[in-house]
Fold:
Amino acid sequence: MSIQDNFRLAMRRYIYSVSIMSNKDENGDPNAITVSSVTSISMDPPSLLICINKSSRIHDTLKIDSKFCINLLNKNQEGLSNICSDEDRYEERFKDDNWDIEQIPYLRNAQANIFCKVDKLTSYHTHTIVVGLVKDANYSNDISTLTYVDGEYR
Ligand SMILES: Cc1cc2nc3c(=O)[nH]c(=O)nc-3n(C[C@H](O)[C@H](O)[C@H](O)COP(=O)(O)O)c2cc1C
Structure:
């Protein structure tokens, strides 16, 4: 087995929380992508990072100072996670009634919404590490986070 195969199988043992990153592009059109690479960095300043594949549609819309939201999904949002991670279902991404797309698109019924501004973009081979400066955050009181382990939702 290659190093990549062993690494992939090792990483499949992690339990991931599933989020959807959402924003608007320069024309005001909304984008959404399923992500598991969200990690908090610090509280001062409040900041997080996400690793975004350069081949994804949202990638080139992520400019310094542009705004985005990280929507932490709950257990009944597996369907939306599948839609936002399937390049053939791009047209379905904003059909869900729970999207508010007036300003920065966000999901009203997510476990949490973390509103950010892009503070730093670091290219690393196939991916860009996006550092977000947190501008606002809210959360639901019940905890029912959608998780992903070994390639499956749990
Ligand atoms: C659970 C899960 C987590 C994912 N996490 C990431 C991630 O952190 N970064 C990323 O670039 N793609 C991630 N993906 C893959 C993208 O969601 C997928 O490739 C998507 O179709 C790319 O967006 P596009 O179709 O708009 O180009 C993840 C997919 C799943 C199912």
